[in-house]
Amino acid sequence: MTGTTLSDRAILRISGEEAKAFLQGLLTRDVLTLTPGQPRWTGLLTPQGKALFDFILWADGDDVLIDCEAAQADLLAKRLTIYRLRRKVAIVREEGLAVHWSLDALEQPLDPRLPALGHRWIAPTTPGDATPAFRAHRLRLGVFEGAEELGQDQTLWLETNAEELRGVDYDKGCYVGQENTARMHYRNKVSRRLVAVPIAQADEKRQRAALPDIGLSIELRRVETLDPATLPAWLATAIASQAAE
């Protein structure tokens, strides 16, 4: 049984009267305008604009649910707690809920990064595990996530293709890492990109993750060295558009 549950994901609930305002000052996406059924992919960055954690935000009444990497959930909660200070905010792991995925669940929201990723939603856990199928599908589309693939404190947020995957708002105000991220955007200075190459062509100096089970190496390569024919169409289009500006 394949099922729809993504077993490698976990849910954190951020609640309290200051929950959204608290997250608004930390994350790359606008949290104040988050609405039910319209999830948003976002990042928590270093002050230099490098990715620490990436996750998807969901509105649940006045609360915010964070759909995050299960292996990093406790570290993420700890990092958020450091920023909380005296704010009236609670950060707890929501054990009764799970993240689900399917290409065919047309009644559910689309993945906020790329519609081709399929449908994603939050509900109680069901039998079966869709994690291997989703991972293979996601990597075929050239979409990366998590500490292993993005690297923690290694890769600038825009180098992860965050702009093309709807992972940043430029008009939301300040957040951690905002200054360098905005500078790169307005100066059109995204000179390197995360891409997947056949593992036989791996360059260890540029490698963020080796995935021998699927024969890929995820690497941070300079844009001018990339062959558009080897890139997913959405990324090739974005790079061509940047070059034309």
TrEMBL record:
NCBIfam families: ygfZ_signature. Keywords: Transit peptide. GO terms for biological process: iron-sulfur cluster assembly. It comes from the Bacteria. The keyword Iron does not apply. SUPFAM superfamilies: Folate-binding domain. This is Folate-binding protein YgfZ.
